[in-house]
């Protein structure tokens, strides 16, 4: 009888130990990096796995700011388990880079993927919002996806030491505006009154890139910050009627439309900008 009681105690203790191990394993699994990622994605409409200092991540965030959406952001560099989460992202989605963006559980991708979806209108569809305007965020309208760095040779290049190139869109003279609205007249007068004009938004990193070009050339452009004006939206519409682009920045030199950030950087790199400004390189 005593032996039977002892055996029962042993079995009970063994069962308790097994349960404890199972519970501990379950807890570890539920708190694993993979589980954290899956839970974050499932719990929020928009999730960005980011690093606070990363210009690519700032670019992705700027997209949602333009759309008046507030994503749930996980700053990996501010977490003790940030490296483990980044490794888990690689395991789950085949990418270790940041940012990684998700909408309603769907993996959008990185910065370029997010901007492409924004420019195509796909992002607005996924978010169920009606498009009205776009900031200059895409490679075709906003050049560098990183803050510029000055390197030997006095050239601005990207963080990856490359410049996104595209054919320069130069309009010899400002086309006649179809409208005589105050905003249209303002745009025409501004372009005619200053050698260099940048229509910009103060928070736009691609506008900062365009400004950095002229800073490097020791030129001070006349900057119109559309987001700081009550008539900013109407001015942006007037620009669209003039040059066929509703994005920012839009750069003009001596009445000629240089284009957006990408066009400005390309003109800088080719030396065309210096020629237009009468600067000997």
Automatic annotation (TrEMBL):
Alphabetic keyword roster: Disulfide bond, Electron transport, Redox-active center, Signal, Transport
Source superkingdom: Eukaryota
Annotated family: Belongs to the glutaredoxin family. CPYC subfamily.
Name of the encoding gene: LOC103494224
An example molecular function term from Gene Ontology annotations: glutathione disulfide oxidoreductase activity
Gene3D superfamilies: Glutaredoxin
Signal peptide: 1-29
Domain Glutaredoxin, residue spans: 46-108, 197-258
Origin species: Cucumis melo
Keyword Electron transport annotated: yes
Pfam families xrefs: Glutaredoxin
Gene Ontology biological process: cellular response to oxidative stress
GO-annotated cellular components: cytoplasm
Entry protein name: Monothiol glutaredoxin-S10-like
